[in-house]
Amino acid sequence: MTIRESFAGWYRHRLVWVAVILLATAAGTAVLVNRADPKPEPADLQAQIVARMRSTLEQADPEQHHHAGHGGQQGATGAKPPVICGVRVYGYEPAGATALADVREVYGFHLCGIAEQKRPWDVAVKLAGPVIMDMSTEPPGIQVVEATADVRFVDRLREMFPARYAALAQKEALTAAEMAEQRRRYDAAAGL
User: Fold this and answer.
1) What's the whole-number average pLDDT of the chain?
2) Which of 32, 173, 167, 45 is nearest to 112 (CA)?
3) Average pLDDT value for residue range 34-45
């Protein structure tokens, strides 16, 4: 094979690759044009529930979480420090709901930190535990599982949660990724 024949073969393969690249680019452009549709794709139900739980818990006073005596200190301006929450959804009722408006109760876990300025996460006031949110009210009702003088925590959990969600609540909290995202948000809110 001569150099000329070798170059001709290389050149033909190069043209094929250029054609493939142009075709892929055109297909990608068509997909982007279709996604530029002014109607945004709705988020999946699980993501909508997580967002609603988080915003409800972060806007509520810590006392509404039913954690007595865990209020954050007010800053020099008298403003209450923000509450930053991470949440985990164990399930919701009715289980067959396909839209957020159809969800009546959510069973999950919350871990919230009161983000006082310059106070690191490790010493922040925290509110945590299994939570039930009543989505049929506005704002959603918050009910936290807590032990009482007469009832142990695990018994209270089983009393309040359906069995399938109570089993999850006894062994799962936030994932590592959920915890990392919460810590990032907390540090930003606390000015760290």
Assistant:
1) 78
2) 173
3) 55
DSSP string, 103-118: --EEEEEEEEEE--TT
Q: 108 — phi, psi (to 5°)?
A: -165, -160
- 144: helix, strand or coil: strand
Residue type, 80: K
Q: Where are the alpha helices (DSSP H) in the chain?
A: 3-35, 45-59, 153-160, 163-169, 176-189
Name the burial class of residue 136, with classes exposed (0-12), middle (13-18) and buried (19+) by CB atoms within 10 angstroms of its CB: exposed
pLDDT of residue 3: 55
Model-level pTM? 0.69
**Residue 63: what pLDDT?**
59
Instruction: Count CB-CB contacts under 10 A for residue 12.
Output: 9
Both structure tokens of 51: 């967002």
- Whether the Cβ atoms of residue 133 and residue 142 lie closer than 8 Å to each other: yes
- Answer for the pair 148, 159: CB distance below 8 angstroms, yes or no: no
- Rounded Cα–Cα distance for residues 143 and 29 (Å): 49
Q: Are 90 and 109 in contact (CB under 8 A)?
A: yes
Give the mean pLDDT of 81-88: 94
- Chain-centroid distance, C-alpha 65: 18
* Cβ 51 vs Cβ 17: under 8 Å: no
Token reading at 23:
């075709």
